[in-house]
Amino acid sequence: MEQLVTIELFGQPYTFKTESDVADAKEVTDYLVKEVTKIETQHSSKLPSVTKLATLILAALNIANKNIELKNKHSVLLRDISKRSANLVNKLDAAARG
User: Fold this and answer.
1) What one-character-per-residue DSSP string does 12-41 give?
2) What gap in Å lies between CA 56 and CA 87, rounded to an integer?
3) Which of 35, 44, 48, 72 could, after both became Cys, cross-link 59 (CB 3.0–4.6 A)?
4) Which H or E element spans position 5?
5) Apex CA 86: angle with CA 81 and CA 90, to 5°?
6) How far apart are the first and last CA of the chain?
7) How far is Cα 38 from Cα 61, in angstroms, rounded to an integer?
8) Structure pTM?
9) Count of structural domains within the chain
10) Crossing angle (nearest 10°) for helices 52-97 and 22-44
11) pLDDT tens per residue, range 14-50
12) 58: Cβ–Cβ under 8 A, 6 or more apart, which residues?
């Protein structure tokens, strides 16, 4: 069921529809706001002329980078689990044979 979620960025509310749980959508929007705020804080003293679009792009790049890092870690974890599982199966097979 579609529901409306509102996010505030740069002092303006933005409302969008979501088919996911509102709590999940709220977590996503809170994460985006946190990233945007972090970028604004980091660049406010260095580059006061950073545009809203540039801030959003930097936040999106940070989020995409974190996503890729997590995907890579997940892949490594799955490979490790697969290797360990195969090793355990081999040991169990050897123990069952005697």
Assistant:
1) EEEEEEESS-HHHHHHHHHHHHHHHHHHHH
2) 46
3) 35
4) strand 3-9
5) 150
6) 57
7) 13
8) 0.76
9) 1
10) 120
11) 999 988 788 888 999 999 999 999 998 887 776 667 7
12) 39, 43
Range of the domain at 46: 3-97
Please choose, from the candidates 41, 37, 31, 40, the residue with its C-alpha nearest in 3D space to the C-alpha of residue 66: 31
DSSP state, residue 50: -
Whether 7 and 14 have beta carbons less than 8 Å apart is answered as yes
Segment 49-97, tens digit of pLDDT: 778 899 999 999 999 999 999 999 999 999 999 999 999 999 999 999 9
Amino acid identity at 56: L
Our CA angle for 14, 62, 20, nearest 5°, is 45
